[in-house]
Write a structure and sequence with these properties.
7 helices, elongated
Length: 189
């Protein structure tokens, strides 16, 4: 493909491992951050970004580097050790750059989250103030309604309410009392 994006097959060939070993390292989180889908000639191909390649390289060389160093220690050629050390330093520098980039991205995400939290806090404060205003307005309206009802009630209406016609009678006739005490099962009486 290109130097920036590599397929699983290219990575497997580069690291001298199987494609399954590379796929095993492609977790969901790794795919979300470092894997893209490229369409070429109507075929979808998964490719890994440069930072993803570096991380995979670190993983696969980390597992295999012990074997390479051990084989170089016993040899008479000192140049191999220097070459592997410089390669390690380059790998470490590239890994540090990747980690610094990731850290910068995380810092930016944290700043965005802090901004979102402060905006949400402001919205919550506004909502609480509006709720208090609504509650106060409702109480004011209730008080006004009660005042209007008191004003609307005329003295003539208040006399009707207190008139003896509307009051329950204190004494009832004996016939009415007997009628009230009758039970439904007393048919013949």
């Amino acid at each position: 493909m290109s130097e920036n994006l590599k397929t699983i097959r290219e990575l497997a060939d580069e690291f001298n491992v199987s494609k399954q070993a590379v796929r095993k390292r492609l977790t969901d989180e790794f795919r979300a951050n470092y894997v893209e889908t490229v369409h070429s000639n109507g075929v979808k191909t998964l490719v890994v970004t440069v930072t993803g390649c570096m991380l995979l390289k670190q993983h696969f060389s980390g597992g295999n580097s012990d074997v390479k160093v051990a084989s170089n220690v016993g040899g008479n050629d000192g140049n191999l050790d220097v070459a592997s050390d410089s390669k390690k330093n380059d790998d470490e520098v590239s890994v540090l750059k990747i980690l610094e980039q990731q850290l910068a991205v995380k810092d930016q995400q944290l700043e965005n989250k802090d901004l979102q939290i402060s905006q949400l806090q402001n919205l919550l404060d506004q909502q609480q103030r509006l709720a208090l205003q609504d509650k106060k307005m409702l109480e004011d309206y209730k008080a006004k309604i009660q005042n209007l009802e008191a004003l609307a009630m005329t003295p003539h209406d208040s006399e009707k309410e207190l008139s003896p016609k509307n009051k329950p009678e204190q004494e009832t006739s004996t016939a009415e009392r007997q009628h009230k005490t009758k039970k439904w099962w007393h048919f013949g009486r």
